[in-house]
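Notes from hallway chat w/ T.B., transcribed later so I don't forget. T.B. wanted the structure written out for a chain they're using in a teaching module, and asked if we could keep both sequence and structure tokens in one place. Agreed to drop them here.
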Amino acid sequence: MTLSEFLATFGTFEPHLPSGFATGFAVLAGLAWFRFLHKIYPRVGWIVAVLLASAALVVTDAAESAPGADDSQIILDEFVAVPFLFLFYVPWRHPHALLSLVGTLIVFGTLDSLKPFGLQVIERLPGGFGVVLDDIGAAVLSSAVVWLAYNFMLELTVKREVKDEGCDCHR
């Protein structure tokens, strides 16, 4: 096993890992990234996320080109994509923050599996680029979808509250 294969697979190189195993650990790593790095030093957090994603492109590209490589064993792409789930996010102190996080993860899993909106085209990029960038694309789209849904629901709630109060705003 080469160093790039070890890094890209986190040394597992086991084709029979349970479904969602890598994503579960990636989510824990992403939450740690968000809580400890992004919340304390936001710019540094994003710089680290972009640098890790760039390094993952190189590592997965090398692992993909190894003889007998199987991209289903590469799980580094899951780890570097998770910070991008927080690109747009509901503030943690908001009562619906946990629901937003769960929704983002569900949307991410769905988009990563179905590959809509050009993600299939991205996945076909050569080598490790397709492996990593389709997950980052799915993460960014997931974050945007949940953010839009949250803001749409918030707008509906505010309009309903104003209407219920009998606001005399339009006179």
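Follow-up for T.B.: The longest helix spans residues 127-164. Might be a good example for the class.
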